[in-house]
Specification:
Elements (H helix, E strand, L loop, with lengths): L1 H13 L9 E8 L4 E10 L4 E7 L3 E12 L2 E6 L3 E3 L4 E3 L5 E8 L8 E8 L3 E10 L15
Parallel strand pairs: 1-10
Antiparallel strand pairs: 1-2, 2-7, 2-8, 3-6, 3-9, 4-5, 4-8, 9-10
Length: 149
């Protein structure tokens, strides 16, 4: 009987636990560009409330979260700081609003390529994504599409 208990314990340790689905799901796209560009992501939070506190990419010297606002017909951009995403909430970035600014591109972002992007959250830590690069003037993938995971 002791050997059965030992075997059951050994099997329990050898079988990996079922993988837990990530609480944060990231999709989006980036705009082609030379020198600087922007990425637009959607973050769906299936877990506890969190905050987006930064971003990085090996493709750019500087990556930051910005917000564009139209003040009297003049578009102004400013650093957004931490962006909250509630439990069950969504962050939706789009042209003319919240976006990820990519400055000092190390090489041009070309349509058809992919942009590696890492988002940093206060609680969840680092979440990596690979976003498709779309032509200048694009407004994003067709409705319902997921641009990268």
């Amino acid at each position: 009987m002791k050997s059965f208990s030992f075997l059951a314990a050994a099997l329990a340790l050898a079988v990996p636990a079922a993988a837990k689905a990530p609480a944060l799901h990231v999709s989006g796209w980036a705009r082609a560009g030379v020198g600087s560009s922007a990425a637009y992501v959607s973050v769906h939070n299936g877990g506890a409330a969190d905050r987006l506190i930064g971003a990085s990419s090996p493709a750019a010297a500087s990556v930051s979260v910005h917000d564009s606002q139209n003040n009297g017909g003049v578009m102004r951009m400013r650093a957004a700081g931490a962006v909250p995403v509630g439990s069950g909430g969504i962050i939706s970035m789009k042209p003319g609003g919240l976006h990820i600014m990519l400055s000092g591109l190390k090489a041009p972002l070309k349509p058809g390529s992919r942009l590696p992007l890492t988002l940093r959250f206060e609680k969840a830590g680092l979440v990596r994504a690979s976003l498709p690069v779309l032509p200048p003037g694009a407004q994003g993938p067709a409705a319902g599409g997921h641009g990268g995971h």
